């Protein structure tokens, strides 16, 4: 097995994508989703080259990949995949070791994990606590949602300082350059008044990509505003809701969304931030 850092080029990004699609053959990959995936790989290869590794067999075929980020004092795992034929041969363990080496000296760590038993063992063995999560999905019934209790406006690059400030308060570290990438393919709703501050990224497929707020009231306002902003009949998805996010469950149930188990929010050196819905990709 040969390991090398993922480089900021299309060939390496496509190699990571090849391994990922092989590891999850039942998932659908639209042209848009693929383009965003390739952008994420290259974004993290640029900002965090020491946390991004590609494993190849002796023939040069990609068999595994890991993408990890370091934002101030928080380390996050964005991706860990191993091709089916290489599983159980130590590839994932070695990739995780390289990614964790990038976390040395950090206080906190976060992973949004799929319901995969082998991965859960690896994360627990690395010292992460496993917090079961839920997902909500379905067609939004706007008639059942209450009118937001205050203004939530369309955000943008001008709100970077506000968003980083909220991040630091909730998870101890800003998202920094990840906001630039998120703004490329999501709309962001922002609230800032005497009741608190917060923001919510919403992808064009109805997925809540990331939500952070300094109070439950602001979080409810942001999530409600984001769902009401979807086109009529659109499907919404909320992911990795821990038991601490009951406010999100209430909004989701009011909107007519269905609830199901999801995976785990894996944390080290911290409790689940709240009110907070993590980004699977950017945490």
Search tags:
283 residues; alpha+beta; Aminopeptidase; 2 domains; 5-stranded antiparallel sheet; 8 helices; 13 strands; 31% strand; globular
Kindly provide the name of the CATH class of the largest domain: Alpha Beta
What share of the residues lie within helices?
Answer: 25-40%
What is the second-level CATH architecture of the largest domain?
A: 3-Layer(aba) Sandwich
3D shape: globular
Oligomer classification = single chain
Total count of domains: 2
Pfam families: Acetyltransf_1 (PF00583)
Protein name: GNAT family N-acetyltransferase
Domain N-acetyltransferase: 1-150
InterPro entries: Acyl_CoA_acyltransferase, GNAT_dom
How is this structure best described in words?
The protein is of the alpha+beta class and 283 residues long. It folds into two domains: 2-106, Gcn5-related N-acetyltransferase (GNAT) (Aminopeptidase, 3-Layer(aba) Sandwich), CATH 3.40.630; 135-262 and 272-277, Aminopeptidase. Helices cover 33% and strands 31% of the residues. The strands form two sheets. Strands 1-2-3-4-5-12-6-11 form an eight-stranded mixed sheet, sandwiched between helices. A hairpin with a 2-residue loop joins strand 8 and strand 9. Helix 1 (10-23) crosses helix 2. The longest helix is centred in the first third of the chain and has 17 residues, at 31-47. InterPro entries: Acyl_CoA_acyltransferase (IPR016181), GNAT_dom (IPR000182). This is GNAT family N-acetyltransferase. Residues 1-150 form the N-acetyltransferase domain. Pfam families: Acetyltransf_1. It comes from Streptomyces litchfieldiae.
């Amino acid at each position: 097995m040969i390991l090398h850092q993922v480089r900021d080029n299309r060939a390496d990004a496509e190699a990571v994508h090849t391994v990922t699609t092989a590891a999850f053959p039942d998932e659908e990959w639209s042209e848009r989703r693929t383009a965003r995936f390739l952008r994420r790989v290259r974004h993290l290869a640029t900002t965090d080259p020491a946390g991004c590794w590609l494993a190849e067999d002796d023939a040069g075929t990609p068999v595994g990949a890991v993408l990890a980020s370091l934002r101030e004092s928080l380390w996050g795992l964005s991706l860990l995949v191993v091709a089916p034929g290489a599983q159980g041969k130590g590839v994932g363990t070695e990739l995780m070791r390289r990614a964790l080496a990038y976390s040395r000296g950090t206080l906190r760590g976060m992973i949004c994990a799929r319901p995969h038993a082998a991965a859960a063992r690896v994360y627990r063995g690395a010292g992460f606590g496993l917090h079961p999560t839920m997902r909500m999905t379905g067609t939004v019934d706007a008639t059942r949602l209450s009118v937001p209790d205050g203004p939530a406006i369309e955000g943008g690059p001008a709100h970077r300082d506000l968003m980083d400030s909220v991040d630091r308060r909730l998870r101890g570290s800003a998202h920094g350059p990840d906001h630039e990438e998120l703004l490329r393919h999501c709309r962001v709703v922002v609230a800032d008044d005497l009741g608190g501050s917060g923001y919510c990224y919403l992808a064009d497929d109805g997925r809540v990509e990331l939500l952070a707020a300094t109070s439950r009231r602001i979080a409810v306002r942001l999530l409600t505003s984001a769902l009401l902003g979807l086109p009529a009949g659109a499907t919404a998805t909320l992911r990795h809701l821990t038991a601490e996010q009951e406010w999100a469950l209430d909004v989701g149930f009011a909107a007519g969304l269905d609830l199901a188990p999801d995976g785990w929010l894996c944390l080290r050196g911290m409790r689940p931030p709240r009110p907070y819905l993590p980004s699977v990709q950017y945490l």
